[in-house]
Amino acid sequence: MIARFEELDWQETPMGELTLRRRADPATGELIYEVRLKDEYLMSSLFTVAEEELATLGLAAAEGAVLDVVVGGLGLGYTAATALRDGRVRRLDVIDALPAVIGWHERELLPMSAQLVRDSRTSLVHDDFFAVMRRTPEPGDPLYDAILLDVDHSPRHTLDPSHADLYTAAGLASLARHLKDRGVFALWSDDPPDAEFMAVLSSIFDAGAAHVVDFDNHLTGGTSSNTVYVAIRR
After folding, report:
1. CA-to-CA distance for 123 and 82, rounded, in angstroms?
2. What is the pTM for the complete model shown?
3. For the domain that residue 89 is a member of, what is the CATH number?
4. pLDDT tens, position by position, for the chain (234 residues)?
5. Is residue 31, in this structure, part of any structural domain at all?
6. Could you tell me if residue 168 is inside a domain?
């Protein structure tokens, strides 16, 4: 039996105080894992539908019998774990800027941790995803069939100002260089579909679509929604 609130880890990071905690739902007894960055909730295991749909929708658009995939943002691991359920995935690189988050999974503190770190296809990479995407790929660098990104709240609401350039035409063009021909870029957003961002996305990629993902919100008793953008490299 655990206390109603249990702090599993606390660390100071370049973006502020990062906390992982676990709590028991008083009504159901379900264990809920939550991450806070500074004074705001970053993610919760209560709400994982859209994170899983990011992988499902992104890989559904990918062509080929064998896929090399990169996930930007490890978080609680639901996007990466869902990607591994696609039998075509040969390689899964997961890039996160916070070594604390990688450490949580290496210590198997989270529900998805074991299946991620024990799968030989998975590599957890400590790096700045946005800096990686700005670089021009060198000979021998991996190119991907799919890039799945879940770091910022949305293209307009970034966790760090340095991320904002990715969501411009120049930033997306730089990201596209890391994709194979007809490779897929998929992006999670907490905001409704953004027509202005869709126009920028469609200027670089083909077949751009904004999927609204609805899910039950047990806190409000209603329905909430996120957006998953999916586009294909020209």
Report:
1. 15
2. 0.93
3. 3.40.50.150
4. 445 678 898 988 887 899 999 998 877 778 999 998 887 788 899 889 999 999 999 999 999 999 999 999 999 999 999 999 999 999 999 999 999 999 999 999 999 999 999 999 999 999 999 999 999 999 999 999 999 999 999 999 999 999 999 999 999 999 999 999 999 999 999 999 999 999 999 999 998 999 999 998 877 778 899 999 999 998
5. no
6. yes
Name residue 48's amino acid.
Answer: T
- Domain tally, the chain: 1
For tokens 């586009």, name the residue.
231
Classify residue 110: in a domain, yes or no: yes
Does any domain span residue 137? yes
Strands across the sheet containing 89-96: 122-126, 89-96, 67-72, 144-149, 179-189, 222-233, 205-217
